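Practice problem: predict the structure.
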Amino acid sequence: MASVRPVAHTPTWPVRGFILGSIGLVFAIPIVAMVEFTLRRGLAGGHDFSRWTALFQGGFTGPYRTVLVALGNSVGLAMGTVAIMLLLLVPTLLLVHLRFPRLRRLMEFVCILPISIPAIVLVVGLAPVYSVLARVAGSGVWTLSFAYGVTVLPFAYRAIQANLDGVDVRTLSEAARTLGAGWGSVLVRVLIPNLRRGILAGAFIAVAVVLGEFTIASLLNRITLQTSLLVVSKADPYTAVILSLLALTFAFLLLLVIGRLGLVRTGRRRPTTGGQS
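Answer:
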């Protein structure tokens, strides 16, 4: 008697629309509320764009200039965190996968451990390390990249490991080595291109975490986007919300660019076959 395979049911368009619409509302309602808050005229009632025009006409001068500096610091930290992830995590995962598969469970435990540690506890442990680091290499804001590298480690590990499980890395590396490629060429020209989606997903998450992180930067007295927005909110909450909306827009565009890098080109021309009928 032939066995009957279960049929995979795909959601219909109404179900997809309902799910996407519900998720869209979760994100849209707070943003719409923030926009409405910035347009209020206070006790006079009504709405206008006076605060937006005043901010842009002033050119982000005075107390708001620090927000631009802090935004540059956060972008630099995001780039540094992604670089640490690429230089340390990716080669280590490949080495464990190819040469030391018995260490995979230990590697997974070490990489997932930071997600179970609260940020304030993590800062308490990192404070003595940063006191030594400040005497050796200075106390610039770039040093937060090391702490952020630990923070994003669980998310980056999951993204890259999921891609790694779907690629036959051992066969690819052995084939490349058989053809005479060195380990450097195997890593750069064979393995990393096949892990591009996982690496970009990890970079996507790292950038999102760094741009939104506040606790570590605040307790270690570093100027980042979130700490500067807190300072502005104490003087002018309306302008702080406007700057938060602009920061959200910038982060969305930055993440959109990173996401576009992971898309496979589908516009290639198909080869023609035979003659025309």
